[in-house]
Request: fold
Amino acid sequence: MAPETMLLDRHRPPSTPPPLDWLTLADAFEIACLVRCAPAHPVDGRRGGAEPYRGAPVEFNRPEAAHRMRQLLTRLDVPVEHQVTTGGLRRRYELHRLEVPREHRPAYARLVEAGWRQGRRELLGGPVPGASAARRLWRTRLAAAAWRSALLAGGRHVRRHILGVRLADRELAAVLVRGAALLDVPALLRPGAGCFVVCVADGPDRRRILDNAALAPAPAPVCPPPDLDAGQD
Reply:
């Protein structure tokens, strides 16, 4: 009886959650990209690329990034507290701190982690044979969301001949390069001092990125995307 008892008591992994619908995915993925652009908070505890969506405060030094994250969280019915502090002496600056209330953090973490995993697979997984028109459209919207986050919250690296962003997150840098390709823009990934720099050429390439990353009204909901092979994550 002992072996049978051990078999019955064996831990069973949880079932894979259903994929997010496209509209929820786009918002959750953009939040994930914004969080990955922000510096790790001292209480975050991130080490070696650990997932950063555990509810620790997220801080931005640009109001546009904070307001965009608030907008996205509101659309997903996630409450958030927004605090603004001012520092500096001769050069004043504002620090925008966003924090999800403790009781909502588990649901927030699950949603944003799912958004990052699913969005990353869509962008890095390559073309899907027979992909629907909706899927092709939303893949470009995910690419635009990643670039919008980087331009709002990443470190700007603008030169006369390029538009670039500085990032500490290698995975997000790879997503930006692939996202630019989906937007028909070649992008370069260069190592920087303790960071990665993703840049596109000035001129038509720069304008195409900025046009796609510009804020627009939320698109109408569509049917959920088909699930992908879990082994591609």
